[in-house]
Amino acid sequence: MAERNRNMAIACEVCGTADNVIMFYRRKNLCNRCKQFSRRITKATTPIVCNCTGECSPSGTCREGRLAKCAEIGLNIFDEKLEKLFKNLMDWNERRLFNFTNSQPTEDLSLEEIMNRGTIEFTERSPSDHNLTSHQWASLQNITTIEFMKGFHFVKFLNPEETTAFIKKTYFKTTIFFMAMASFQSNRDSMIFPGNKDVFPEESVDIQQRHDKLFKRIRCLLISKFIEFRVTKEEFLLLSVLISCDPNIIMEPNSDDGSTNPNLTKKGMNLIRTYYNFHQVVLMDYCRKNYKLNYWPNRLQKLLSLILVLIDTMGDLGKTHSLFQFVESGVKLNKLVDDFF
Ligand SMILES: [Zn+2]
Ligand SMILES: [Zn+2]
User: Fold this and answer.
1) Structurally, how many domains does the chain consist of?
2) Which residue pairs from 227-235 have beta carbons closer than 8 angstroms and sit at least 24 positions apart in sequence?
3) Which ligand is located closest to the Cα atom of residue 51?
4) Are residues 88 and 130 in the same domain?
């Protein structure tokens, strides 16, 4: 709870001033100016750019400098009422589902190509037309997930390279999570595309027969946990944010040169981490409110364990990717699937 304090010894954690410092506003000590800034910045309609002639500072008029400092101290600039947060997430998800159900798959595009095009224009398809190949479904599932991820509040503060670097690390994982969620919500116990289309390419039937258990695990393991835990819509959405924005995964060293995500600035990474932490707290609060006193920590643990099951599923998918790589397999993967591995 915010508490006014006239004690001159306390300095604003963002700009350093000791004037009008409010203690524990969003868990930080902030001056009134930085408090107002943190409340309004996510609604900014003009780009946040540095206007400093000398060294950039969080205490002047430069919005970029103040924002970078807010990010550095982990100030939650994304705070919003729970009702609004869920409404936003539900809306984004509805749009994602609408595009998945009503759009034509685009040509086979790589992540870079998609990102360079800006907002994706979806072309309409009759929702009853389920006559797509598994490649086309996979492509739509990935593209609609990427559009969903671009909606996160912090993305507006990233430059285009940073946005691509962020999305690149987690889009396919989030896609798989959404695929399993969709199958679960339509009462299936294994991952499948609309119109009963297999999630694996048609030409992989032989390989699938030879590695039956592996493919079965990918299709069923995650969903079996969804069924066991009866995951709610709100929990699914919060988990999808945690999966997309996991700072540890986003900062994971690149396998090719071992560097940590080189396109992300410190500010970008700090913003993602704050967004992630905020949603983790929201998930905890959700559990606390909706489950009995002795049960909610257990519920939270169960939900977070789903992320580990997803990681296992991704590991298994990596194995199938290696199998498909053999020239004689004849399986060609969609660029967005191939790019990820
Ligand atoms: Zn301040
Ligand atoms: Zn500046």
Assistant:
1) 2
2) 227/184, 227/189, 229/302, 229/303, 229/306, 231/181, 231/184, 231/303, 231/306, 232/290, 233/90, 234/86, 234/286, 235/283, 235/286, 235/303
3) 2
4) yes
